[in-house]
Amino acid sequence: MTFIDSHSHLILEAFDSDRDNVIQQAFSNGITHIVQSCDTLDEIEKNLILTKKYTNLYSSVGIHPHEAKLWTNVSYDRIVKYTKEEKVVAIGETGLDFYYNYSPNDIQVKAFREQIKIANEVSLPLIIHTRDAFKETIEILKDEKPKNGGVFHCYTGDLKTAEEALKLGFYISWSGILTFKKASDLKEVAKNIPLKNTLIETDCPFLTPVPHRGKRNEPKYVKHVAEELAKIHNVSTDEIGNLTSENTKKLFGIK
Ligand SMILES: [Zn+2]
Does the predicted TM-score (pTM) go above 0.90? Predict the structure, then answer.
């Protein structure tokens, strides 16, 4: 069985003591590719070093809504420049987070709109983070019209919003949250999203799936998300692995 972890944060401190081991463990446990997400332009430098070291490791480039306050008048050009790097496959993560509000709402909106414009300029998909802002996120997407689609990563919204996202050409990505006992509403949403529009991810080191809750998350645990999705759709875990891998490769243009 093989899987792709479509969203990880392997440059974070949580992996400082054993990063290479975690990556090798993933690749020797059926994870064929890993797509690293990027939260700041300092992080992209570290991501690029890592992606050069491992063939099947890729990265996005962008500024997370939490960090939108870091957006300056040179951010647009700097992100565009990083997209010329071979292993950069997406813009993000970007979006809106009105739950934590670590950056002012209007700054988040500006950084989000600018990053959609970049995605259109350089023909890359978007990695969207949205929390307590699903309506606003969809409105901005409709307004800015992303041409290369993208993914709503770590999806936690309702079915109606998911359907709006699908109409805009986006994928829905499920994380370890789907395995949580309390996630019955989310499982119901997942049941109604076609597998051809579905990705899986860890968002590691966060959101560790059952049965490893309480431990640090890592890419190899993405198979537990696949197992849960297999139960929900009544198909084999193998099939989930194959379909979501195909979808991930198609979205990010990777082989
Ligand atoms: Zn993330």
Answer: yes
